[in-house]
Structures are given as structure tokens and as C-alpha cells.
Amino acid sequence: MSNPTATDVLGPVAVALYQRLTGDAALVALLGVDAARGLDGVYDLVAPEAAPAPYVVLGDGVETPRNVHGGYGAEVVVDLHVWDRSQSTNTVSSIANRLRGLLDHQPLTVSGHTVVAVRHDQTLALRDPDPELRHLMVRIRITTEQE
Questions:
Q1: Most Cβ neighbours (<10 Å): which of 70, 90, 114, 133?
Q2: Beta-strand relationship, 73-85 and 133-146
Q3: How much is the average pLDDT of 91-111?
Q4: pLDDT band at 99 (very low <50, low <70, confident <90, very high)
């Protein structure tokens, strides 16, 4: 009898988040997606130079084991960064509110894992040296059990 081993959860979580965000018409409208240029408004780690603001970047993730006797689990924390070029925080705030609505206490399908909970952990307003750049970070905590 072989012992099961833990599998990666960061990759499947990133895929699930990307699918959730890009599949939401209200978020797509807030981002003003430019499909004609191949830009979807949600990017993994780095936005392309040509990406028009506003946009969301799936930032770094941290996976912490949450194992139980006879099984593997994880707690994953992912930072979603909302960026805009504006004098106002209205747009980034609206986008952050939509992200929280899409994810906090909502079911999420993560390949190879059962999602136990999805929670909004915190939102941070971050200052940039450029006075016209607005940046909010929305931190999401996802608890999983390996299938």
C-alpha cells in the first residue's frame, strides 16, 4: 500500500481565481477589457506593458500545510492587486468591492482539491511615488483539502 503525497495547490488556485475573475461580466465591465488587443484585464504576476488601466494582477501566493491524520490540506493566501491611473480611488475601490463579492464566502472549484473556505482576509491601500497611480491589494485566504 503506497502512501499518498501532497500535491501542488498554488497552481490550481491561480487557475481557479483567473477563471472566476475573467468569467464575471460585471468585473470585465469595470476593467474596460480590450479583447481586440488580446488583453483581458486580469494578469498573472505581471501586467503587459500595453495593458490599459485599470487592471488586476494575481500576485504572489503563500501555501501553508494544513494536514490532518490521513490527509493533506493547505491554506493558501493570494494577493490580488488592483491598479488604475487616476486622481481618485473610486475605480480601484469599486473593483476591490467586486473582487470581494466574487470570492468572499463563495464556492470555488480548485482542481484536485476540495475547497473548505474562501475568505477575504484584508484590503490594503498602497501608495506609489506616482501621484496618479492608485493601488489596492485584496488578500484572499483559501482553505483546501486534497482529494
A1: 133
A2: antiparallel
A3: 97
A4: very high
Stretch 8-31: mean pLDDT, rounded? 94
- pTM, two decimal places: 0.91
61, 13 Cβ separation under 8 angstroms? yes
pLDDT of residue 1: 38
Tell me which residue has cell 501621484. Answer: 131
**What cell numbers appear for 31 in the block?**
476593467
Cell of 36: 481586440
Query: How many whole angstroms separate alpha carbon 130 and alpha carbon 85?
Result: 9
| H or E, element range at 101 | helix 90-103
Which helix (H) or strand (E) covers residue 116, if one does? strand 113-126
DSSP string, 8-54: --HHHHHHHHHHHHHT-HHHHHHHT-BGGGTB-SEEESS--TTPPSS
The DSSP secondary-structure symbol of 80 reads E
∠ Cα 142 146 147 (to 5°): 125
Reported as half-sphere exposure (CB side, CA atoms, 13 A), residue 119 has a value of: 10
Distance CA(145)–CA(5), nearest Å, equals: 12
